[in-house]
Amino acid sequence: MFVRRMCTLSFLLCNQVFILLTYIEYPNSRFRKQSLPIIIIDTAILPNQTLEITSSDPKLNSLIDYVLQSTTSDELGILGLNPRTKSPLNIGVTAKVTKENVRNALTGTRTGAGTGAVISLQTTGQRRFEIEEQPYLHDSGSFYMAHVEIVEDREEIMSMEQCHEAEKLSRKLPSLVQKWKQLVYSQSTTVKRQVNYIMETIGPMPGNDHIGKRALWVGSLVNPHPLPEMELCSEIRPALLSCKNNYQRIYLAVLSLQSSIDYLSDRKRSA
Question: What is the pTM of this model?
């Protein structure tokens, strides 16, 4: 099945199984529902991560033209693959498609997709969503549509204990990031240059009053898109997208950073 109404995503990190994503019906969810054309890529991306696709595939061009001509939305939905099963996730991010970010790959000029054209689409992840129902083939036969729920501003449930723990974990991140950077920089000049570029792209770490955004920022740092030559951390983006509240997100961010630090420290000692 492409989509399950009730599902659990499990993912192995540092010899621990992190289990997330049991479907819950939230109040007022009908106000966040819409239909989007869907593209599937190898790895999930997070909000604020950049995706660039160059292709002459007429089906992709048809999808891009559909969004450009739409009067209801200028977004498409991006789904990654489950790292274990290689099947599409039912969680993803929206991305805008406008004439500003669609270019002819051969001439560099802004353009619509058009039949037979080699198109370059550069866009950025925006809002998180969940797929509500089995995607269906568009009338053109070129791409799939899906009914989705935008979950970016959905009310989240956390206990007081989780709120306090989330704040405590969030305060740990700056020192962990600094330690992680020092270890990464010691690997090679090339890796250091790549990480510096990643940090320029994603911008500064959000403040402690934006715990969820801070956790997603860590995900963009340790799992950049595209991935650098050296694997910096286990893949956590699908699990981050699956988290139901900021406690889960920040817990995963801290766990992944610490796991990467342990791995890089061992690698440095054995060098």
Answer: 0.81
